[in-house]
Structures are given as structure tokens and as C-alpha cells.
Amino acid sequence: MASSSTSSHPLLHTSRDYSNVTEIPYCSVPPTYNEFLRKYLEPNIPVLIGPALTASWKARQEWVDHATGKPDFGKLRSQLCGDRPVQVPVADCQCKDFTDQKRSTMDLKEFLDEWEAQSKDGVSSRMYLKDFHFVKTFPNYTAYVTPEIFRDDWMNEFWTKRIDMDDDYRFVYCGGDGTFTPFHADVYRSYSWSANICGVKKWTLFPPDQEHLFHDSLRNSVYDIENVDAKAFPLFQVAKRFTIYQQPGETLFVPSGWWHQVQNIGDTISINHNWCNGSNLDLILESILTDLDQVEQEIEHLQESMEEGEWIETCQRLLLLNSGWDWSTIWQMCSTIKNRVRRQLEHRDKIMELSPSYEPTTYFVEDGVEKRKTIPVYLPPLVSQQPALELTLERLDAILNFIRKDKSARYFLTKVKGYTLDE
Ligand SMILES: O=C(O)CCC(=O)C(=O)O
Ligand SMILES: [Fe+2]
């Protein structure tokens, strides 16, 4: 059985109440950072933001044929496809593969050629270019600058600072009419934001408190909300939901744990990030503990034949494989962010001069020791986020202390990873 429980966790917000949400708010004027923090991030409520937020992006100016509103296939090809092939991930929207669509890779030029031909013929598309790590693939292109309200982003800050791997959560999606993303909640219960460059995206969003209505007895979830087996999911139709049509230039903030399905209408291109920070850290932790619980239950039959240390290590290995995190990932992420926040608090006066590129080099913390990395990294939070820094530090300390006190986490980090967990 699970050794950890979230019930007494100091980070858990007392409540997030979705019962009063009757529609998805629309901000034609983008909110200030503090407004966004208070109205949407902390209460975990979606918001659709008007096109002013993305108006200056190169992606909006150059990737779209402004006469037709369709993708500018010629420019996309000439700017992104050189002599070398660029392999991109694609999903086959007509082929279900467990809980997702069947994935493969394709050369970007080939994808664009096929897409353009289908678009000209007016036929609906099947292949959906998704989870394409655009910034990692084209680091000098600068298709967009992450808006300030989304800049307190620990996942992308940490993953780009990591020296043990090269990964991030910054994506481009391209798909023709009829392509879609099946029903899901985002990885680790992270937030996402999704900015639409062209086309229309139909989003159907379900608050986290409806989740019990779309799982069956074996914990399988609905795959496609347009085709639900009423026998397996008898209560699905009563689940509260919100539908929005996201127009070109608009950006949707998708909060933690909100389930959603996305349908593309016309040829669409969008940019999205998965992210987390002090406002949803408790939900991220809860998701890790739930995943760990599940791993422990799945291999419960092996527990008796193992020493305690071997059991803890095995569960962490499986957790990392299944969910992409283990205790050391979250420990290192929080330590890395904590050091950056501390530095910002120490140099408050300088932040004004140094923003937005406050940290020209980057620091990644491993076992309490900072290691430098010199590649350009994710932009750190800006001046207007400074009032939230003290609270952020408090929340980071709370989670680090929680991990220090958790028996299995402590064993894994000190004995297996060799960390010291100093305060
Ligand atoms: O645009 C899509 O197809 C899916 C995007 C999504 O699921 C997200 O941004 O969380
Ligand atoms: Fe999503």
C-alpha cells in the first residue's frame, strides 16, 4: 500500500471550488500578472485571452497567409525546411492506440506538402503534427516570446536548465480540418496554455470535480467525447462541461486537472506549453502521489519478497518510467527554482535593470550543489511577479520539507541518489 498521503499536506489549498463557474471568462484586454494570478492561476479557473497577447509574434505575422487566413505553406517551408530533413512527431487521428492516437514521425517538408494538398482539395486530414518541440528544434527562430503571465514556469525553466538531459514542454501543433486530440488531462496535472495562430479550435473542458463521471470501474477513461459507450460510462452525459471556439490569435489558459478534448476546424496551427509553479504545485504533488500509489498497488505482490530499500527503488523506477517523474525529479526542480528565487530576492534592486534576461547563465542544482550550463534558457519571471516571490519560497520550502519527511522519498534520495537534503 502507499506509504504517503496528501491529506495532511501543508501545501494543499483548502479548497478549489468549481461550482460557481458558469462560463469560461474572456479577457479581450490581456490581464496583468497580478490579476491573472488572483483570478485564474490560484483558483485554477480557465480563461480565454484576446489576440492582443500574441499580436507581435513572428508566428502570427509570418506563418499565416493574411489574405486567406490559412497557413502560409510556402513561407513555412522556406523558413523551416532546409536541405536537412526535420523529423517531427505526428499522430494518426483515425487510429486509437491504448489511451492515445497512434504516433510516428515524418519529415516536416513531407508533412507540409501533404497537408497543403489536402487543404487545396478540401478533404479532412488524418495526420496531426503534435508535441513538436519547436524551440528545441529551432532555437534561433524566435517564433514567439512567452507572455509574462505564463513566465513563472518551473517545468520549462528546470528542464532547460538540466544538465543530465535535453528536454522541454514547449510545443507546436499543426493539423488540418477534422484533426483532434482525444479526451485527457495534461501530463502530471500541469497547466497548459495554448495560443492559436490560425484556424479555429473547439475545446470542451470539464472541471476536475467531474472526474468520477468519466472513469469506468477499471479506471479507464473516455477516449472520444463524441463517441462514448453509455454502458461503460453511464454518467458521462451528466458531467458539467464548457465548450469554446478559440479564434486565431486567442490564447486559452487550461488549468490543472481540467479534462479536455480539442477539435480543429479548418487548418490550424497552435503553440502551447505545459507548465507548473507555486500555484499548482500541490496538484502536481497530488498527481505524483496518486501515480506512486498506483505503482505500489500494481506490484504489491512483490513487496514481501523484497527488502524495503529494493521495494522503494523499484517503485521509483516504475514511477519514472510510467509518469516521467520520481522523487529526485521533483526534489531537483524545487531546489533549482528555490535557488533562483533566493537570488532574485537578494537582488531585488537589480532585477529592475536586469529583467527580462535576469540570468544570462543558468544554474541547475544537484544534491545542493549548483552546476552551470551556458546554453540560452527559458526566460525567468519578470518584475511584476516579484510580489509573489516570498509566497513562492514558502511553498517551495513546504514541499521540500514534505519530501524530507516522507520515509520512502528520504530513503530514495539519500541512500539511492546519495543526496544530503540539507536545509
Ligand atoms: O491543440 C490540441 O490538439 C491539444 C492541446 C492540449 O491538449 C493542451 O494544450 O493542453
Ligand atoms: Fe491538453
UniProtKB/TrEMBL annotation:
Keywords: Coiled coil. The keyword Coiled coil applies. SMART domains: JmjC. One of its GO terms (molecular function) is 2-oxoglutarate-dependent dioxygenase activity. InterPro entries: Cupin_8, JmjC_dom, JMJD6_ArgDemeth/LysHydrox. GO terms for cellular component: cytoplasm; nucleus. One of its GO terms (biological process) is positive regulation of translational termination. The keyword Nucleotide-binding does not apply. It holds the Pfam family Cupin_8. Residues 285-312 form a coiled coil. Residues 135-292 form the JmjC domain. This is JmjC domain-containing protein 4.
